[in-house]
From TrEMBL, chain A:
Subcellular location, principal: membrane
Protein name: Branched-chain amino acid ABC transporter permease
Keywords: Cell membrane, Membrane, Transmembrane, Transmembrane helix
GO CC annotation: plasma membrane
CDD domains: TM_PBP1_LivM_like (cd06581)
One Gene Ontology molecular-function label: branched-chain amino acid transmembrane transporter activity
Subcellular location: Cell membrane
Species of the source: Brevibacillus panacihumi
Membrane topology: Multi-pass membrane protein
Transmembrane spans: 12-27, 33-56, 88-107, 112-129, 158-177, 207-227, 247-269, 290-308
Entry-linked PANTHER family: BRANCHED AMINO ACID TRANSPORT SYSTEM PERMEASE, HIGH-AFFINITY BRANCHED-CHAIN AMINO ACID TRANSPORT SYSTEM PERMEASE
UniProt keyword annotation of Transmembrane helix present: yes
Domain of life from the UniProt record: Bacteria
UniProtKB/TrEMBL annotation, chain B:
Name this protein carries in UniProt: ABC transporter substrate-binding protein
Any Gene Ontology biological process: amino acid transport
Region (Disordered): 28-54
Species of the source: Brevibacillus panacihumi
Family: Belongs to the leucine-binding protein family.
Keyword set, alphabetical order: Amino-acid transport, Signal, Transport
Length: 338, 410
């Protein structure tokens, strides 16, 4: 923990200030709801970042865990009358179990095969939700899901609830990154064979990352269900999984902050397009999908490590240059005096 | 070195916690007083009200339609019809001398976007009522918020769930799957058909139909001998049709939106299915005729009267408004209006009718609409406290495809 504070204290402080101030800088209810959606996405992308950036796996089925979490909490609270908090706890556990089983089953897969397996899992879950009508309400979905009581149920309180969860998830992930586990993950990411020969249980670490990311997505899904008040299977498909993937890749897979920044960026672009479409009618509708696709291609072509790691390395380079220049100057001065 | 670093991050944290404290104080306030209805946010709106009536401030109404995405074939004509009618209403002096202003939003056929859009309209544009959306999912999401905010809403979505159970202030204009099912069953009774097969889409629209067919079949003495499904984007349904061919069904009911029903009709012809096919109002438009070509001859459909405007009986109470709407729409857009355009048209008309009866006071709109009787292009709306759709199956008609055209069955 101490190390985390040392390493990321400044960024985390800035993050906290921005996060807390945002609803007051933008005192519009609408932007609070945008903030809520960004928070929900961020929880998923931070989890996905653990799987992709750290463990070097790919998941094209993250929206499925999101959906399982959403439906778990919705069914428990709406059909069985349990309090939303119990539903939210279950919405972390159930997707975690699914992730565990799936993770065990596909532990030996790599590359394209892993991508295909997670892709298939995403489809199975979406179809399963649609067909399991007695429980999930089928394609027409569920309505009247209760809200989470958290200092009232205004948009503002929901915003703080969700960003409190984001902060916890963020702290957990940063802490993890900086521990023995994190170093093990980085070793796996660089080379699985080398990691194994160093005595790292690659299978177990990969499975853990997968389960944790599933649980994060599940919590976010549960919150989404209570926030929306209705559910149908439509948002939990491949489209959403790809969107999560884009956010992580744009921000930079190897950095937890990257996942957060990527989420913000993609959502800001989306909102910016909506705002601009009032003046430029051509920017309506599906244009954002095209823009995201374009961004993804550009990032992969010119900045495969992602935005945040690139900026960080640029910053460090310039600092090193400055330091070098200063050193040079000092040496020159010393030479001049002698 | 270490000391200064801790200081560095302590400072923002201290600021953050200070802000958090003030945030909690600020956040609690609106929640506490919102019951009284006199929070800071609401005050300007309240003050504007009396001033507005003298200075003819517009009545702001939101309209969320699916202008892009999967539901855009529904949303675009809805918006066009609403725009057309809006112009007419404002040229005639608006409501109580105040013009009506509509702020359009696109939900991209997406639930989350629809909920975001309605929140934006309420908080930013301060609308007094909302129309939309085109699809069932987005409409249900909006209804959840509108009901909590006591915002009157008129939806153009087919799903029965929008107004069943009834919620204060939530209404809808389209025929539901209940009306369609009952109308088809009435027709089957007349023809003495008792055994049917169904082949419905697995989306909300089709599965809604499946439920209603199961529910009402016993009432009409009808047995379902085969119940098949297909996915919205499936390219072929011949395996389901082959299964149905093996049963003793006397008619096939198809519920889905184009292009799938057209594909089914074509493949049924190739397979020599040999029983009448009845398709739902979801596919009843010119696109179906275009897609199905010659194979469509003899296909039956249940639809609103707007499908065959020139065949509506002159004595029909709806005849006048249908003619007016069709002529106006054709003049403006050079195209035949379909049922969806009609849903939008009726939605705005109902809203304006309600506003007029409420004397321009939108807060009473929810109650007033429950007493509104209005003859629209979709049917005769008779809203009541128990019925927020207000239509009956008698406002639907059966048509047959003949020589590439829809022909009314008397």
């Amino acid at each position: 923990m101490k190390q985390v504070i040392q390493k990321w204290g400044k960024s985390f402080g800035i993050y906290l200030v921005l996060m807390i101030l945002f609803p007051f800088v933008m005192p519009d209810e609408y932007y609070r709801s945008v903030g809520i959606i960004i928070g929900l996405h961020a929880i998923v992308t931070i989890g996905l970042c653990l799987v992709m950036g750290l463990a070097g796996q790919i998941s094209l089925g993250q929206a499925a865990f999101w959906g399982i979490g959403a439906y778990t909490s919705a069914v428990l609270t709406t059909k069985y009358g349990l309090p939303p908090l119990v539903g939210l706890v279950a919405s972390a556990i159930v997707p975690g179990l699914f992730a565990f089983i799936l993770g065990r089953a596909i532990a030996g897969l790599q590359g394209y095969y892993l991508a295909m397996a997670t892709l298939a899992f995403g489809y199975i879950v979406q179809i399963g939700i649609t067909e399991w009508e007695p429980v999930t309400g089928g394609a027409s979905g569920m309505i009247s899901i209760p809200r989470v009581p958290f200092f009232g149920d205004s948009e503002l309180s929901m915003y703080y609830l969700i960003w409190a969860v984001v902060s916890c998830v963020l702290l957990f992930s940063l802490n993890l990154l900086n521990s023995r586990v994190g170093r093990a993950f980085r070793a796996i990411h660089k080379s699985e064979i080398a990691a194994t020969s160093m005595g790292i249980d690659v299978r177990r670490f990969k499975l853990n990352a997968f389960v944790v990311s599933g649980m994060f997505a599940g919590i976010s899904g549960g919150l989404y269900a209570h926030y929306m008040g209705i559910l149908d299977p439509q948002p939990f498909g491949l489209h959403e999984s790809i969107k999560f993937l884009t956010m992580v890749v744009v921000g930079g897979m190897t950095s937890i902050w990257g996942a957060l920044i990527g989420t913000l960026l993609i959502n800001f672009i989306s909102e910016g397009l909506i705002a601009m479409s009032e003046f430029v009618p051509g920017l309506q509708g599906d244009i954002d999908t095209i823009v995201f696709g374009g961004i993804l291609v550009l990032i992969i072509m010119f900045m495969p490590e992602g935005l945040v790691p690139r900026i960080r390395s640029l910053y460090e380079k310039s600092r090193a240059k400055k330091a070098k220049a200063r050193e040079e100057l000092q040496r020159m001065e010393r030479k001049a005096t002698t | 070195m270490k000391k200064s670093q801790i200081k560095k991050w302590l400072y923002p944290l201290a600021v953050a916690s200070l802000v958090m404290l003030s945030a909690c104080g600020g956040g609690a306030q609106p929640a506490g007083t919102s019951g009284g209805g006199s929070t800071g946010g609401e005050q300007p709106a309240g003050q504007a009200q009396p001033a507005a009536e003298s200075s003819k401030e517009p009545i702001k109404v939101g309209a969320i339609f699916s202008l892009t995405g999967a539901n855009s074939p529904l949303g675009v004509p809805e918006k066009q019809a609403v725009e057309l009618l809006l112009k007419e209403i404002n040229e005639a002096g608006g409501v109580d001398g105040r013009p009506v202003e509509i702020i359009f939003e696109d939900d991209k056929s997406d639930n989350t976007e629809a909920v975001k859009a309605i929140k934006k309209l309420v908080s930013k544009d301060k609308i007094v009522a909302v129309l939309g959306s085109s699809g069932s999912g987005p409409s249900l999401g909006m209804a959840e918020f509108a009901a909590a905010e006591k915002l009157p809403m008129i939806s153009m979505a087919a799903a029965d769930q929008v107004t069943n159970p009834v919620r204060a202030g939530i209404f809808k204009t389209p025929h539901t799957d209940v009306h369609g099912t009952k109308r088809i069953f009435k027709y089957l009774q007349e023809k003495g058909i008792t055994k049917i097969a169904t082949l419905n889409d697995s989306n909300p629209y089709g599965s809604g139909w499946t439920q209603q067919i199961q529910k009402y079949a016993p009432e009409y003495g009808i047995t379902i001998v085969a119940e098949e499904k297909y996915g919205t984007k499936d390219p072929s349904m011949s395996s389901q049709l082959t299964k149905i061919k093996g049963t003793d069904a006397q008619a096939l009911i198809v519920a889905g939106t184009n292009p799938a029903p057209a594909t089914i009709v074509k493949e049924a012809k190739q397979l020599n299915l040999g029983i009448p096919i009845i398709s739902s109002h979801g596919s009843a438009n010119s696109k179906f005729l275009e897609l199905v070509g010659d194979a469509g001859e003899g296909v039956l459909m249940v639809a609103g009267k707007l499908l065959v405007p020139d065949q509506v009986d002159a004595n029909d109470p709806q005849a006048a408004i249908i003619k007016k709407f069709v002529d106006g729409y054709k003049a403006a857009y050079n195209a035949e209006p379909d049922g969806f355009a009609g849903y939008g048209y009726d939605g705005l008309n109902l809203l304006v009718e309600g506003l007029k009866q409420a004397g321009g006071d939108a807060s009473k709109l929810g109650e007033v609409l429950e007493k509104v009787n209005y003859v629209g292009v979709t049917g005769e709306f008779k809203f009541s406290a128990e019925d927020h759709n207000g239509l009956t199956e008698d406002s639907m008609i059966m048509v047959e495809v003949k020589d590439g055209k829809f022909q009314l069955l008397k």
